[in-house]
Amino acid sequence: MIRRVTPIACALLALADCAAARESLVKAFEHQRSDAAPGPRIVVLRSSNQPIFDAPLRSFLKETTGDLWVLPSVADRDPELIGEVTRSLNPALVVAFGSAAAMIARDHIKTAPVLFVMVLNYRRAGLAGLDGVAGIALETPPAVEFAQFKMVLPSLRRVVCFYHAPSSQELVDRSVEALAKLQVELVPVAIDTPDAIASAYAGAVSAGTAVWYLNDPVLINAKTFAWLRDRTLADKIPLLASLSDDFAAKGALMSVSVDFTSLGAQAALAARRMLVQREPTKAIGVQDPIGATLSLNLDVARQIGIDVPAEIIPFITKLIVAQSSPR
């Protein structure tokens, strides 16, 4: 015999499923009350359980007091339900680690200020200039990066960067202006796909030029980096990279990266300003990261004929040499 499910039964089943999902989400939140006197309630949303978030989150929790609730991952969960449960906790502040968490906080939590951390290109993500939203930028400002690059390459005057215009035009425009103040000409080369770099390279890169591998979401991938690394090594052209010291470890001449532990501590300081000193989010704004790390691959420097002055070695955070660990 076939049983027919009535509309009322369907609605009850849906409600039951929703209640179960809500109960599961509530249980997923980890209540980490500080050992200090209870302070304002802070809800922390983490985009995923990827290890990249471990150090900054640990640092934030260490430096923060208050009634702390942490959702270890928003991945594969209903954003609206996350917003509902977060609102029910009535937090004084929501701290979002990563883009996915920041989007949920921005779109589904309107009852508390939001502080975002570990968001790549926050402007492109639509997090700039929003009421009730502050943050710590993930990228080091181009002028800061190139000031460090010029310690090693004081004669640096011309730099080529390949980029995907829909993704990175705003970053490129800001960078052209910032580098001009350092007497460095940035030559942007827009391409449609990563495979187009090979044909664009020959007409753009020449002796006396460096190549900057900037934070472009379309071009940051293993295949593109490997091609640029191999070609610039063959041509004895400096390859400069942003975001991660892993690029220098894998064959770029240099990279400037952010200290993720410092990001967490910086976010904790911003949270204190918002909750203890009662500063508005507009006063906090989006802060540039502190604690940038300059990594230099000495093997690559030797291969492309760059002499690194001994007097600047103490100012380089990580020296990468074959078969040895970074200092």
Report on the architecture of this protein.
With about 325 residues, the chain is of the alpha/beta class. It has two domains: about 5-140 and about 260-285, 3-Layer(aba) Sandwich (Rossmann fold); about 140-260 and about 290-320, Rossmann fold (3-Layer(aba) Sandwich), CATH 3.40.50. The protein contains twelve helices and 14 strands. The strands form two sheets. A seven-stranded mixed β-sheet has the order 1-3-2-4-5-6-12, sandwiched between helices. Strands 8-7-9-10-11-13-14 form a seven-stranded mixed β-sheet, with helices on both faces. β7 (about 160-165), α6 and β8 (about 185-190) form a beta-alpha-beta unit. The protein is elongated and about 65 Å long. The N and C termini lie far apart (about 75 Å). The model is unreliable at about 10-15 (pLDDT under 50).
Keywords:
7-stranded mixed sheet, 327 residues, alpha/beta, Rossmann fold
Order of helices and strands: HEEHEHEHEEHEHEHEHEHEHHEEHE
Under CATH, the topology of the largest domain is which?
Rossmann fold
| Gyration radius over CA | 23 Å
Helical segment count: 12
Please state roughly what percent of the residues sit in beta strands, choosing from under 5%, 5-15%, 15-25%, 25-35%, 35-45% or over 45%: 15-25%
Quote the distance from N terminus to C terminus. 74 Å
Q: Residue share in helices?
A: 40-55%
Large-scale geometry: elongated
Question: What is the CATH architecture term of the largest domain?
Answer: 3-Layer(aba) Sandwich
CATH superfamily of the largest domain: Response regulator
Average per-residue pLDDT, rounded, comes to 89
Number of structural domains? 2
Runs in which pLDDT lies below 50 for 5 or more consecutive residues are 9-17
What is the level 1 CATH name of the largest domain? Answer: Alpha Beta
The major β-sheet equals: 7 strands, mixed
